[in-house]
Write a structure and sequence with these properties.
three-stranded antiparallel β-sheet, two-stranded antiparallel ribbon
């Protein structure tokens, strides 16, 4: 039982014959009880392209302790901000599943 388990934090550090202790008392009597741990991280990325071609990306990261961080990155258009004509193809980007989706 746990009541018979040694207090490992306050015990002296010394070598001992663990094999015989495990054989006679079982492993649960020697090891401290396992503590369950859970951790997650959520990442949300949003990209918006303005009519002048500038791109704003918002990356929000939230962890299991409730900490949240948002980083906003703005970049100018790679083609110098030339407006697209109505006959120009719309830009595409890889979505979270790797599929191509229209970003316009």
């Amino acid at each position: 039982s746990q009541l018979d388990a040694p207090d490992l934090k306050n015990s002296r550090k010394e070598d001992g014959d663990l094999d015989s202790q495990v054989t006679s008392r079982g492993l649960q009597a020697i090891l401290p009880p396992a503590q369950s741990r859970s951790y997650f991280k959520s990442v949300s990325v949003t990209k918006v392209m303005a009519p002048d071609g500038t791109v704003e990306e918002r990356r929000t990261v939230r962890d299991s302790q409730g900490h949240e961080e948002t980083v906003v990155t703005r970049s100018s258009a790679p083609d110098g901000g030339l407006p697209r004509g109505s006959g120009d193809p719309a830009p595409f980007s890889a979505g979270p599943e790797g599929d191509l989706s229209d970003t316009s």
